[in-house]
């Protein structure tokens, strides 16, 4: 029970951090379409195919934990994109247009 509650808190916290991260990556005039389109396409493709791909990896290797490598690879790719795509902003430097 406690593990389940902590997992839900972690997922909720991750969603909040993601929203703030995406808001910082794009200027306000293009923020909605720049955030919405890649987020929903990425979630649909990477999240939608996750069960299929991870089970395929498990079936090919016979290791029940081998499917986690797909998730790890997607998270590592997201970390690289964030590291190179997120520019530091200081308070008061965001442009409105």
Structure description:
This protein is mainly alpha-helical. It contains four helices and no strands. It has helices spanning 2-25, 31-48, 50-61, 68-85. Helix 3 crosses helix 4. The longest helix is centred in the first third of the chain and has 24 residues, at 2-25. The radius of gyration is 17 Å and the shape is elongated.
* Secondary-structure-derived class: mainly alpha
Residue runs with pLDDT of under 50 for 5 or more positions: none
Distance between the termini: 48 Å
Q: Quaternary status of these chains?
A: single chain
Distinctive features:
97 residues, mainly alpha, 4 helices, elongated
How would the blueprint of this fold be written?
Elements: H1 2-25, H2 31-48, H3 50-61, H4 68-85
Helix pairs in contact: 3-4
Quick structural summary:
With 97 residues, the chain is mainly alpha-helical. The protein has four helices and no strands.
